[in-house]
Structure formats: structure tokens, C-alpha cells
Fold this sequence. Notes:
The chain is mainly alpha-helical. 60% of the residues lie in helices and 0% in strands. Helix 4 (49-63) packs parallel to helix 5 (75-89) and helix 17 runs parallel beside helix 18 (310-324). Residues 1-20 have low confidence and may be disordered.
Amino acid sequence: xxxxxxxxxxxxxxxxxxxxxxxxxxxxxxxxxxxxxxxxxxxxxxxxxxxxxxxxxxxxxxxxxxxxxxxxxxxxxxxxxxxxxxxxxxxxxxxxxxxxxxxxxxxxxxxxxxxxxxxxxxxxxxxxxxxxxxxxxxxxxxxxxxxxxxxxxxxxxxxxxxxxxxxxxxxxxxxxxxxxxxxxxxxxxxxxxxxxxxxxxxxxxxxxxxxxxxxxxxxxxxxxxxxxxxxxxxxxxxxxxxxxxxxxxxxxxxxxxxxxxxxxxxxxxxxxxxxxxxxxxxxxxxxxxxxxxxxxxxxxxxxxxxxxxxxxxxxxxxxxxxxxxxxxxxxxxxxxxxxxxxxxxxxxxxxxxxxxxxxxxxxxxxxxxxxxxxxxxx
Length: 378
């Protein structure tokens, strides 16, 4: 496992492995001497081409002299040299020397970000990288006027919404283009942050406004607000989410959907360790999950008695016994063989041979005592 981790680490850290990654260049005395003296001639004396070019790149960066990069033949290392030198010199003009569009874009983004200069983002070739460049600088400057330059709807929405939240100003959303698909989302985010359902009135009617009411209802724990939601499914989800947020089963029961009601009851029952609420769950699988979770969390197998299936009851009791490190939790299991199996497995898990003495079957007891040192469960 350690070997695999090391290989993965090297793979990601050193994508140019074949051309020499220079992972341990910091230990190279001659290379460090050339970089410290800012002397490319010392690099040119090196016989290994990859080492020589890595050395030249380091000198170019240290000396802030992109002309040294021209001595490099390998395209990848030359591009890297230009990029590092451009950033060191804080000179975006050097980025244009980079032949690869991806690396060129990254070069412009680094300098644009460093100087908070959104005009440099226009030079980024890739539209997605360019959009993120505009968005990041707009957010950094807290200036929503820059957001529209991103051109991509999702980036524009994220940009306006983040700045609106930072300023705690719903007016930022209002300044979005009327045709923007993200305007409703911006208003919903602000309604949630401001805990103000009236902001939802700025959202167009229908599913978007329903979502806005739902977000506000959850954050304020207001189930009455769920009643304003027109769509039945969305309303049921709202009651379920508010019930979970408030840990209030009465709100759960307001959901007319069995599925969403069960989701709510499951969360509330586990949080309250209430087996009574588990019994109110209609779906049998979720009901089983409810009893199991309470038994594990409370380290008490008494919740397991409500399970009808013998296998489920065993798994539940065994899990509680392990969590509690208490073999007595196995005693609730009625079937002799299954109860002995529980004692056996708990004894192995907690490495306590005295637990084996509680096993009735002689063969199982002997097996238990032998298995303690082998970590061998049944």
C-alpha cells in the first residue's frame, strides 16, 4: 500500500517524469550554486540535458530574465520557464511566449490574480479558465460589475451570488441582467442568508419561488412557510427538512408523502433515540435502519427486540455489543446457536477469552478460545 501511495504521489507531483522532473533538485549542489549566483553558464556545463534545462529555468526565474529560457530546447520546460519568470518578474508580456494554451492561460491567471487586474483575463485562451479568472477577481475586489465579463451563466451566477452574500446586499442580485438564468438563484441565496421570506417575492413564481421558500423555511425552522409552496412534492420535502432541522416529529407528520415523512422520522428518531418514532416509519428497510442505528449509537441492544427478522436482530445486537464492548448485549438473542456466535465474535473483537465461558455449545466454546489470538470471527 505504501509503495502504491508513493507511486501515485510521484505521478501527480511530477507529470513530466519522462523528461526529468527534478524532484530532488534542491539537493543538487551545482544547480543551487548556479541559481544563487544567477549564472546560466554554470548550467550549460552540465552534461545531462534535462538537468541542464531545469537549472536554466531556475536561473531565469531567479534573475527574472526570460531570455535565458530561450536556451531551453524542451517545449514543456521552456513553457514552465517562461511562466515562472513571468510571475517572478510580474510581467504578463512574457506569458505570450508560452506555446501551450493551457500553460499560457495559467500564466495570465496567476499574474491577473496577483495584481487584481481583470483586463489580463481577456488574454486567457480557454473560455472556462477565462470565466473563472474574471469571477475570482470580481469576488476578490467585491465588485459585481466585473461578473458579466465571465460570459458563462454558471460563473456569472456564482460571481453575483458570492458578492451579494459578502455585501449582505440583495441589491447586487437586482443588478443582474433580467435575462440571466441565475437571477432567481441569487435571490434565493440571499433570502436564505437574510432569513427573509419577502426576498422570495422577487423570484419568479413556480418552482424557483417554491425552492426559495423552502430554503428560508429550513434555515428559520418555520414549517408554516412550507404552506406557501405550491408544488406538492416540494412542500412535502420542505416539511421533511424543517422537521429534521427542528428535530420535531410533528412537522414530519405534516408531509403527505410516505417517503419524505419516513426520511424525516428516521433522522428525528435516531437523534432522539426514540424506538417509538422508529415504529411510525412505514418502509420496513428504513424502520430496520432506525432500530439498528439507535442500538449502535446508544450501545444498547434493547432497541433490537423490535426487529422481526432473526438475522436482523442478531446483527443489531452484535453491533450494539461491539460498540458497548459488552457481551451481555448478546443475551437478548433467543436462538441458542446465534447467541453463541455473538458471544464468540464479541470475544474475538474485544480480545477477552472470559466471554467464551458464556457460550453453551462446547464445540463453539472451544473454537472461541482458540480464535481469540487469531482474530478469527464467525
